[in-house]
Amino acid sequence: MEKWSYTKFGGGSGGGCGGHTYQLSCWIMVTGDICDGVANGNNRWHKTRSSKPVFDENGVRNGWKKILVLYKAPKKVGGKPERENWAMHQYHLGVKEDETNGEFLVCKVFYQSPSKKNGKS
User: Fold this and answer.
1) Which of 84, 95, 106, 107 is the most buried (most CB within 10 A)?
2) Is residue 106 a contact partner of residue 92, using CB atoms and an 8 Å limit?
């Protein structure tokens, strides 16, 4: 299995493009709310909020879902990272909220069209 770059999903063309992948959690080194390593360069996936439990049809918790957004590395040293329109939903099985090293994850990566509300187009 090879590490992937976010540009492989949708080719950066926008319009709701996306894809699915799976990976081992050792490829994502979790440091606080920052997940490092899966994008190229110093780009980072940032966890947006607390993990949400995932339940089966009987109400039994089977795993967890994290929502992350991609931040592009700053162009200047000490600059602020720039938020991209790429999002990732990351899922893992188990009772613990945080995944363990070597555990398989399922990820859905997709491009979110910029909203006109925030001034982007």
Assistant:
1) 107
2) yes
pLDDT digits (tens, 9 = 90+) for 46-89: 889 899 999 999 999 999 999 999 998 888 888 888 999 999 99
| Residue 100 burial (C-beta neighbours within 10 Å; 0-12, 13-18, 19+) | exposed
CB 35 within 8 A of CB 51: no
CA distance 38 to 49: 19
| Torsion over CA: 83, 10, 30, 41 (sign) | negative
Helix/strand/coil percent split, the chain, to 5: 5, 45, 50
Residue type, 64: W
Reported as a single tens digit per residue, the pLDDT across 52-61 is 999 999 999 9
Bridge partners (DSSP) listed for residue 110: 18, 87
> Token pair 């949400």 is at which residue?
52
Cβ-Cβ contacts under 8 Å for 32 (sequence gap 6 or more): none
